[in-house]
Automatic annotation (TrEMBL):
It comes from Roseobacter sinensis. The keyword Zinc does not apply. The keyword Transferase applies. One of its GO terms (biological process) is methylation. This is Methyltransferase. One of its GO terms (molecular function) is methyltransferase activity. Belongs to the trimethylamine methyltransferase family.
Length: 520
């Protein structure tokens, strides 16, 4: 029953399909082709509204200030002319606008495989894997369990396998079976050997950041000078809302800034909890927390690549739990997109949900989040595949279900769909059919039928009776079967043997030295 569903789930043309076209591949997926967002952004704010939120963010920075819990950062900002009172830093709007004006509107991140380079900014739209959940769920287990290295490796294999995933974010699930002191070494070794996409470093202490930069440098076969010459990786930091930046994240932020690597700052402002209950207030606070970090990075290295992120959503006022994919989340993302364009900075948002399993709620909330990213002009979409329970669970079935949406977004952006040349207007075809007959058999259709429409790799388009005869396999079950096939047939991208050995030697040496310090 399951085998029959597996055989029929990928079709390459027509309702019956032709699974043989995919050869030995598990699925027939779209090629690597990071999309360009061809739509005009949704802009819910009037020019007066943009000015009001900008003024609110500037007044927060001027009148209230941000706590920088890092003495080095405070000293840098003091020397640049900020007003400092202990750890509280205030900065004027003229200074803010001058420094953020030095940040590039777009930049390119080049991983060890240059063919997987990605451009952040402009109209570029990039999707990344789920990052950082401590727990894992799959259909075989049927319950939430702590993450392990094997689970993490399997999710990294999905990250590499799917062409619609363009960068490898943080750990797709925290492997808590690895001690925190050496976890980053093992996971980065796995990431660099199982994938060839752009890497991420957690800003959680100097050892982790320095180790990851060195491992990325080794994997790319670069000298230190070559590594520093252009961004090869990135970090994402979160402010400690409301109105704080903590020590380790600022430390990592400054270390990557000095070496010209990619920087993303994403305040986690939940309206009603860590930010005002109003969307405009939450967005203004989020912008203030992000822009002051951009200022710090530009003071350290003018022109270093920076993006601002939005994670503004709301809490459930009945339980206090975070909610995602809500109308408020969508509007906050669109509003932040308007302000990001006002500041000339690339934007990061997320594909998120509050659902606990890969069900209907998971998909409508995630779909809302992803389309809000499209509408806002987002450039980097974190957690685009695999996220559950507000970021506490990673799921391979959800990962694969999300990739179906991501491919649809990529196809939606294909310029062929909106082309208006003579072949697309198709007057000759219309004339040949006239007032009778149909378009199935004419040459215009025959020449295009294999590529005319999006073909899903997971959705089942059979009628109820056909679906029932094939075993009545629900979507998460089909995704689970696909997950098993992908993992079973996975082939890691090539890596030079000498480089792999150098990476392994570095990991062994750093483990012998104790890795990163922990308090347990």
């Amino acid at each position: 029953m399951a085998e029959a569903a597996t055989r029929r789930r990928t079709r390459s043309g027509g309702r019956a399909g032709a699974a043989s076209r995919r050869g030995t591949a598990v699925i027939e997926q779209m090629p690597w082709n990071p999309p360009i967002n061809t739509d005009r952004p949704t802009e819910p704010l009037t020019p007066e509204g943009v000015a009001a939120i900008h003024d609110g963010a500037m007044r927060i920075l001027e009148e209230i200030g941000i706590e920088f819990l890092n003495p080095e950062a405070v000293q840098i900002l003091r020397q640049a002319g900020c007003t400092v009172d202990g750890e509280n830093v205030r900065m004027g709007r003229d200074m803010v606008m001058e420094w953020i004006g030095k940040a590039p509107a777009e930049f390119t991140l080049t991983p060890r495989n240059p063919a997987r380079s990605i451009t952040v900014g402009g109209r570029h739209l990039l999707f990344g894997n789920v990052s950082s959940p401590p727990n894992y769920w799959d259909l075989e287990r049927g319950t939430k369990v702590p993450g392990t290295r094997e689970m993490c490796r399997n999710l990294l294999k999905l990250t590499q396998y799917f062409n619609c995933i363009h960068f490898a974010g943080g750990y797709p699930v925290e492997p808590v079976d690895l001690h925190a002191s050496i976890r980053h070494l093992d996971v980065l070794f796995d990431k660099l050997t199982l994938t060839d996409k752009v890497m991420h470093a957690y800003s959680l202490g100097k050892e982790r950041v320095e180790d990851v930069m060195e491992m990325v440098r080794i994997a790319s076969g670069l000298s230190h000078e070559e590594f520093d010459a252009s961004p090869r990786m990135y970090t994402n930091i979160n402010s400690t809302s409301p109105l704080k930046h903590d020590y380790p994240m600022l430390d990592g932020w400054m270390r990557l800034a000095r070496r010209g690597q990619g920087l993303v700052v994403t305040p986690f402002t939940l309206a009603g909890a860590m930010a005002p209950v109003t969307m405009a207030g939450a967005v203004a606070q989020s912008l203030a927390e992000a822009l002051c970090a951009v200022v710090l990075a530009q003071i350290i290295r003018p022109g270093c690549p920076v993006a601002i992120g939005t994670f503004t959503s709301n809490v459930d006022m009945k339980s206090g739990a975070p909610a995602f994919g809500t109308p408020e989340y969508m509007r906050a993302t669109q509003m932040t997109g308007q302000l990001a364009r006002f500041y000339g900075l690339p934007l990061r948002s997320s594909g998120v949900c509050a659902a606990n399993v890969p069900d209907g709620q998971a998909m409508w909330e995630t779909s809302n989040s992803l389309w809000a990213a499209v509408q806002s002009g987002t450039n980097m979409v974190y957690h685009a595949a695999g996220w559950l329970e507000g970021g506490l669970i990673a799921s391979p079935e959800k990962f694969i279900m999300d990739c179906e949406i991501l491919q649809q977004i990529q196809r939606y952006m294909d310029p062929a769909l909106t082309a208006t040349g003579p072949d697309e207007i198709a007057l000759d075809a219309i004339k040949s059919v006239g007032n009778a007959g149909h378009f199935f058999g004419i040459q215009h259709t025959q020449d295009r039928y294999t590529t005319a429409f999006y073909q899903p790799f997971l959705s089942d388009w059979r009628n109820y009776e056909g679906w029932e005869v094939a075993g009545a396999v629900w979507t998460p079950e089909r995704a689970h079967l696909m997950f098993k096939e992908i993992i079973g047939s996975f082939e890691a991208p090539p890596m030079d043997v000498a480089i792999r050995e150098e990476l392994a030697d570095f990991v062994a040496r750093r483990k012998a030295e104790g890795g990163a310090p922990t308090d347990f």
